[in-house]
């Protein structure tokens, strides 16, 4: 019986980007998040700038280097472009979680440390993940201030008008890895974090006429709402979208973060009005098939079609989802918007074909579809 790490749930996700200010503005305007924290020279941090963006339980941080000496951030962005540097798990006891994780094979990235100021302290430690990412353990039970020491109220007077999007919390975080790395990282998360493999998509499960991938979903065994799918490319006629990611990101890393809503039509409508680009809508036949399956869903299929929302009926309940186009310059990181209905536990396997065909159309436009 493996020891519990005391995982409560996801905490924050931090991106390293070229310009934190621009990226924060986009998240506020397009995603409807609020800029609720800031860290930079004015708060005593001299080599980087970070903005905290929040809504309901969502905590995203966008950070950029403001000195060439900050090699950690600038080298990450130079190599990968804008991307997720770390995602954090809220744990009851950082040192305990870290010690157990290390004993179980976790690769250390940062040893447990207290970050203190007049508002109290935050404890953090981190493990290595994929090529250049980190899993952070965090506890801020003893901290009354904004986010963590080094952060304060945003000093910028940016008045951003947008349609409210109603985004609630992180549902799952997905990694893309190289051929033969999926099992390595799935085992790593399972052993280190007391996770288990929950769903497996093998050869032939996820493929279009042209390309394919393998996927495993691991989740916390401790009942915490933490799920991490891991994808690897699989041999097909054309280049797998996972291979495109690996080439363009220059390594393995985080592919997408899925965020929940309790009214996906409203959310997608608002995000479209705010200027978010989504993957192209599936063909008419997709919605025809939904109707023909005759399964009862609360939503009107014509409405789903209007907003281009996908609906997956696999397993228990059903889920509604939609994927944005890559949010930055490289075809790498994107967001998923998801609404789970009636206890749906899946990840949209029934939609993979429609989704991948849509990605393939974009891949073709980028000239990344044919193998070299
Ligand atoms: Fe997903």
Topology:
Blueprint: E1 7-16, H1 20-29, E2 34-39, E3 48-55, E4 58-65, H2 71-80, E5 83-91, H3 94-103, E6 108-117, E7 120-129, E8 133-139, E9 170-176, H4 182-193, E10 195-207, E11 212-220, E12 227-234, H5 241-249, E13 253-260, H6 264-273, H7 284-293, H8 301-307, E14 310-312, E15 318-323, E16 334-341, H9 352-365
Helix pairs in contact: 7-8
Bound molecules: fe (ii) ion.
Residues 172, 174, 256, 258, 336, 347 line the site of fe (ii) ion (FE2).
Q: What's the gist of this structure?
A:
The protein is built from nine helices and 16 strands. The chain has 372 residues and is of the alpha+beta class. The strands form two sheets. It has an eight-stranded mixed beta sheet.
Explain what this protein looks like in three dimensions:
Helices cover 25% and strands 35% of the residues. It is an alpha+beta fold. Helix 7 (284-293) runs antiparallel to helix 8 (301-307). The longest helix has 14 residues, at 352-365. The radius of gyration is 20 Å and the shape is globular. Fe (ii) ion binds next to strand 9 and strand 13.
- In the sheet with the most strands, the strands line up as 2-3-4-1-5-8-7-6
Topology order in helix (H) and strand (E) letters:
EHEEEHEHEEEEHEEEHEHHHEEEH
Uncertain segments of ≥5 residues (pLDDT<50)? Answer: none
How many angstroms does the end-to-end distance come to? Answer: 48 Å
The residue fraction in helices comes out at: 10-25%
Q: Tell me, rounded to a whole number, the average pLDDT.
A: 93
Bulk shape: globular
Q: Main β-sheet: number of strands, strand sense, barrel status?
A: 8 strands, mixed
Percent of residues in beta strands: 25-35%
* Bound molecule types: fe (ii) ion
> Rg, please?
20 Å
How many helices does DSSP assign?
9
Number of strands: 16
Structural class call reads alpha+beta
């Amino acid at each position: 019986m493996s020891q519990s790490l005391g995982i409560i749930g996801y905490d924050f996700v931090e991106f390293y980007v070229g310009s934190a200010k621009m990226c924060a503005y986009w998240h506020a305007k397009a995603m409807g998040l609020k800029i609720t924290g800031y860290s930079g020279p004015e708060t005593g941090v001299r080599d980087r700038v970070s903005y905290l963006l929040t809504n309901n339980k969502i905590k995203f941080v966008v950070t950029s280097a403001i000195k060439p000496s900050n090699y950690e951030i600038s080298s990450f962005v130079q190599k990968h472009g804008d991307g997720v540097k770390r995602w954090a798990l809220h744990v009851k006891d950082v040192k305990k979680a870290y010690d157990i994780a290390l004993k179980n094979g976790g690769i250390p990235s940062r040893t447990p440390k207290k970050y203190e100021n007049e508002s109290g302290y935050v404890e953090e430690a981190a493990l290595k993940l994929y090529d250049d990412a980190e899993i952070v353990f965090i506890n801020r039970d003893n901290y009354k201030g904004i986010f963590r020491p080094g952060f304060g109220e945003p000093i910028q007077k940016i008045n951003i008008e947008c349609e409210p999007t109603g985004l609630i919390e992180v549902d799952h975080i997905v990694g893309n890895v190289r051929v033969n790395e999926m099992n390595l990282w799935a085992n790593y998360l399972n052993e280190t974090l007391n996770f288990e493999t929950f769903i497996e998509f093998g050869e032939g499960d996820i493929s279009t006429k042209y390309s394919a991938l393998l996927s495993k979903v691991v989740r916390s065994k401790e009942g915490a709402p933490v799920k991490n799918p891991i994808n690897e490319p699989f041999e097909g006629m054309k280049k797998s979208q996972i291979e495109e990611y690996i080439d363009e990101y220059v390594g393995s890393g985080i592919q997408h973060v899925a965020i929940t809503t309790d009214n996906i039509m409203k959310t997608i409508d608002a995000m479209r009005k705010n200027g978010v680009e989504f993957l192209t809508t599936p063909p008419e036949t997709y919605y025809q098939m939904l109707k023909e399956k005759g399964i009862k869903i609360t939503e009107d299929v014509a409405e789903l079609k209007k907003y281009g929302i996908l609906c997956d009926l696999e397993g228990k309940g059903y889920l509604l989802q939609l994927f944005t186009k890559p949010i930055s310059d490289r075809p790498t990181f994107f967001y998923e918007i998801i609404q789970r209905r009636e206890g749906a536990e899946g990840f949209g396997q029934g939609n993979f074909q429609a989704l991948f065909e849509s990605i393939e159309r974009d891949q073709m436009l980028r000239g990344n579809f044919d193998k070299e």
